[in-house]
Amino acid sequence: MSQSLEQLREEFQYEKTNSCVQCGYCLPVCPTYATMGKETHSPRGRINLVKMVGEGRITDLSVLEEPLDLCLGCRACETACPTGVEYGSILEAARAALVRRKKFSAPVRLLRKTMFRKVFPSSRIMKLTASALWLYQKSGLQKAARASGIMKKLPYHLGDFEAITPPAVSPAERNQAPVRVKAKGEKKYTIGFFTGCIMDAMFQRINRLSVLLLAEAGCDVLVVPKQTCCGALHAHSGEIEEAKRLARQNIAAFEQADIDFIVNNAGGCGAMLYEYSHLLANEKEWADRANVFSAKSRDISQVLAACGGLPDLQTRSGERVTYQRSCHMTNVQKVVKEPLELLTSIPGIEFVEMEDANMCCGSAGIYNIVHYEESMKILDEKMNHTKATGASVIITTNPGCLLQMKLGIEREKLTGSVRALHLIEYIAEAAGIS
């Protein structure tokens, strides 16, 4: 075997492809295969392409770019797979190998470097971005921009996403966000709260409600300083080394706190934190520390459920609710029952499960921006199942899912009759916490 082929096998994690027996159990659960109908856009098809690279049958690596780029990374195939194929590892390794070899144009290279290395990891820049969004919304600029029609001319359908951007928190309110909150009543756990980058910038209200609900349930909560972006967007985009750097920073930050659990409220972030043990498995200095970190990582629904839920929830008579599952919570963290337990503990609601509840909504980080048309096909199918439930409330547990379902509501012209909320927002409403 030539050295170059041996290197390709290692980079693309060829050995892991041998677990795939091409049985096809992954096909019915794959959103891109369902909407595109191409074998190369299915999990087994993508695995077969990587396998052919490792066997020297594909030498032009560019043929892998579209199939891998159009994968949502929802990993439903892993849940369905009878042989335990590590599709997520294969996908991210292949993407990283392609990025190492790809010659990006100067503007794209600069944009990637700026966003991945300077913007997302910087709490200062993310806070400035949040403040700019607040100013845009409150100053009249938003109304003027919408009235001018310029939103319809923005690239990547960004005008559609601007329409469903949540109200920003003022800089003054942001500066008053709690960093340490004592448990109400008897303390059950001590929590280190993971704020995230997008969550802290765009969904700071949900973060604040998360901290208050944890305290209400009986937890001391500490917002650990010096934490940073989880690295999920980096890993999914082939920037594995930068993802590892962020993982090391987060591990070091949370090691400084005496806590029982590291708690997040975003399915995508949670999956990344959960997988730090895999990400750093080959780094001698960090492997054991990553294992400890991942073992402590929990979705907020797990901790609230372990605390016995929230007391004195208000009755919401006759409100019909459905639940859009986070792919990464379901397929990576395997957190399935706790969100439903919390949701159905709210007295008076009528919970209706949608058909194909585990199917991805098409958000997948920034997939719905860079692959808008493909994403909308998946979303439209999801909205068909959502409408069939007759629900007036759609509950999610991930910011990307939340925005995607809000966009689905807009596309179906259901604004005013249906609303999408994060699980934390809905529980806080029922608990009378604002």
UniProtKB/TrEMBL annotation:
Gene3D superfamilies xrefs: Alpha-helical ferredoxin
Domain of life the protein comes from: Bacteria
Its biological purpose: Component of a complex that catalyzes the oxidation of glycolate to glyoxylate.
Swiss-Prot/TrEMBL keywords: 4Fe-4S, Electron transport, Iron, Iron-sulfur, Metal-binding, Repeat, Transport
Organism: Aneurinibacillus danicus
Keyword Transport: yes
Cofactor binding mode and count: Binds 2 [4Fe-4S] clusters.
EC number: 1.1.99.14
Pfam families given in the database record: CCG, Fer4_8
Span of domain 4Fe-4S ferredoxin-type: 10-40, 61-85
GO molecular function: 4 iron, 4 sulfur cluster binding; glycolate dehydrogenase activity; metal ion binding
PROSITE patterns (alphabetical): 4FE4S_FER_1, 4FE4S_FER_2
InterPro entries referenced in this protein's UniProt entry, alphabetically: 4Fe4S_Fe-S-bd, 4Fe4S_Fe_S_CS, Cys_rich_dom, Glc_ox_4Fe-4S, Helical_ferredxn
Enzymatic reactions: (R)-lactate + A = pyruvate + AH2; glycolate + A = glyoxylate + AH2
Name of the protein this chain belongs to: Glycolate oxidase iron-sulfur subunit
SUPFAM superfamilies in the cross-refs: 4Fe-4S ferredoxins (SSF54862)
Signal peptide limits: none
Top class in the EC scheme: oxidoreductase
